[in-house]
Specification:
The radius of gyration is 25 Å and the shape is elongated. α12 crosses α14. Strands 7, 8, 9, 10, 11, 14, 15, 16 and 18 form a 9-stranded mixed beta sheet that branches. β5, α4 and β6 form a beta-alpha-beta unit. By secondary structure, the chain is an alpha/beta fold. Helix content is 35%, strand content 21%. The protein folds into 2 domains: 176 residues, Leucine Aminopeptidase, subunit E, domain 1, CATH 3.40.220.10; 303 residues, 3-Layer(aba) Sandwich (Aminopeptidase), CATH 3.40.630.10.
Length: 497
């Protein structure tokens, strides 16, 4: 969909559909909806008084103007109670309006942007565009039948009242589009089948981003990783005939300030290896590269938004499959750090490939390390499908993540990393094991990773729940969600504020 900014008044602007929002009654109409109501001789006020439109959160009602306005139709969308309004609800309302428009077959709409409930035009525009675009996302790449029935909105026009507003709205539109396009990319990668989204394809995507945005890139083959001493990554990768790739993408606009390392788990399909998973729902294991997808998307957005940072994106990518060359329970692996790990379960492969990736990130002497991974089913048991598990060794960095979470609506929740948990990983034959007991599974995964970051400020985001969902939410359709992308972008935006 093309979105552009024009100057005009909504009550005077000819269009197929005029989109308006209103708080739940008995709030007074204000801003553009009041101006339209006056031009429409109180029609909207009458609807509200009669109860035909209540303004309840996400309520959508379509009305024909019968030539009383230059707009042929008006879609009213509810914002709920005014005292509960925030940008997260705004994104959700924009999403629901967009879905209604698309499903109704509307090809074009206009929407007047004006300061609302204390939020400036630029912030409202960014959140509106983000909610709208993320809400109408569809993954149709592999559908061949009835493609003519796929509905899409063609054009949106954001109306500004004056030249000053045009500047603010245009900036908000640009930021919202960049963020949405990054999330789209992550969603497409997660939704793509594992026979199409392979480690090689992830590497090609990284190369494309590097070429488009002047980044440095290195892609190590499994043989090169083995020669470097990445015994954990190599062990997992050798089980598949699909060649693994260790991807390092570097964006350097840091002006001398040390890098932030973003590390994403890139298991493009996880069968569990020799410790094979149950067949039920195994098809969803194509989403085990959601961390790598989030890192790729964040690197692209950082470049497009011109962030003044030195970022290093590290993505160990491989399948985890059983074969004659697959690693086995009982094997002892020597990691890049020199530490040894006794394999108890080959279905705890994510922490193995991340151990070498985290160790590799230390070569850049990072100021902070953030890893993202669909690491443990235990985190889903603990926190559900909509919350990212948050663990780390640095209070300041943890608080930065929590602040970004509150702004984006991507929920995180802290879990402890107390030393006592390491007792679960003690091994008789190696430095430690790759899994403990069933107790505290998400925390044990974090404790394992903590052994590879030394004293660097580090945060681990276990996104096993929200990376892919079965029940849609206001601006998050079923399937791959692009979890973590907006969280990281907001973290970086706020870093120097």
């Amino acid at each position: 969909m093309e979105i552009k900014v024009e100057k005009g008044r909504p009550e005077k602007f000819p269009c197929e559909l005029l989109l308006l929002f209103s708080f739940e009654s008995p709030e007074q109409l204000e801003g553009p909806i009041r101006d339209v109501d006056l031009e429409w001789r109180g029609f909207i006020s009458t609807l509200i008084k009669q109860g035909d439109f209540k303004g309840e959160l996400f309520e959508c009602r379509l009305f024909y103007t019968q030539e009383a306005l230059p707009a042929k139709r008006v879609l009213l969308t509810g914002l709920g109670k005014k005292g509960e309004f925030d940008l997260e609800r705004w994104r959700g309302a924009a999403s629901k309006a967009g879905q209604y428009l698309r499903n109704s077959g509307m090809k074009q709409f206009i929407f007047p942007i004006k300061k609302l409930d204390g939020h400036p035009e630029e912030d409202l525009t960014e959140s509106f565009v983000t909610g709208l675009l993320l809400g109408i996302y569809q993954f149709n790449e592999f559908k061949t039948l009835e493609r003519d029935k796929i509905k899409e909105i063609g054009e949106g026009i954001l109306l500004a009242k004056n030249d000053e507003d045009i500047q603010s709205i245009t900036q908000g539109l640009k930021t919202g589009k960049v963020i949405s396009e990054a999330v789209y990319m992550a969603r497409d990668l997660v939704n793509g089948p594992s026979n199409q989204v392979t480690p090689t394809v992830l590497a090609e995507k990284a190369r494309q981003i590097a070429t488009n945005h002047g980044m440095e890139i290195q892609v190590f083959e499994v043989s090169q990783a083995e020669a470097m001493g990445m015994g954990a990554f190599t062990a997992v990768a050798k089980g598949s005939q699909e060649p693994g790739k260790f991807i390092v993408l570097e964006y350097n606009k840091g002006k001398g300030w040390g890098p932030i390392a973003l590390v994403g788990k890139g298991i493009t399909f996880d069968s569990g290896g020799i410790s094979i998973k149950p067949s039920e729902n195994m098809e969803r294991m194509k989403d085990d590269m959601s961390g790598a997808a989030a890192v790729l998307a964040t690197m692209q957005a950082a470049a497009r938004l011109g962030f003044p940072f030195h970022l290093v994106g590290i993505m160990p990518a491989t399948e985890n499959l059983p074969s004659g060359k697959a690693y086995k329970p009982g094997d002892i692996l020597k990691t890049l750090s020199g530490q040894t790990v006794e394999v108890i379960s080959t279905d705890a492969e994510g922490r193995l490939i991340l151990s070498d990736a985290l160790t590799y990130s230390l070569r850049y002497q990072p100021k902070a390390i953030i890893d993202l991974a669909t690491l443990t089913g235990a985190c889903v048991v603990a926190l559900g499908d909509y919350v990212i598990g948050l663990l780390g060794n640095d209070e300041s960095l943890l608080k930065r993540i929590e602040a970004a979470s509150s702004k984006t609506g991507e929920k995180v929740w802290r879990l402890p990393l107390w030393d006592e948990y390491f007792d679960y990983l003690k091994s008789d034959v190696a430095d430690f094991r790759n899994v403990g007991t069933r107790a505290a599974g998400a925390i044990i995964g974090g404790i394992f990773l903590s052994k590879f970051v030394e004293k660097i400020p580090w945060v681990h985001l276990d996104m096993a729940g929200p990376a892919s969902i079965e029940k849609e939410r206001p601006y998050i359709p079923r399937g791959g969600t692009g979890a973590g992308v907006r969280l990281l972008i907001q973290l970086l935006r706020d870093w120097n504020r």
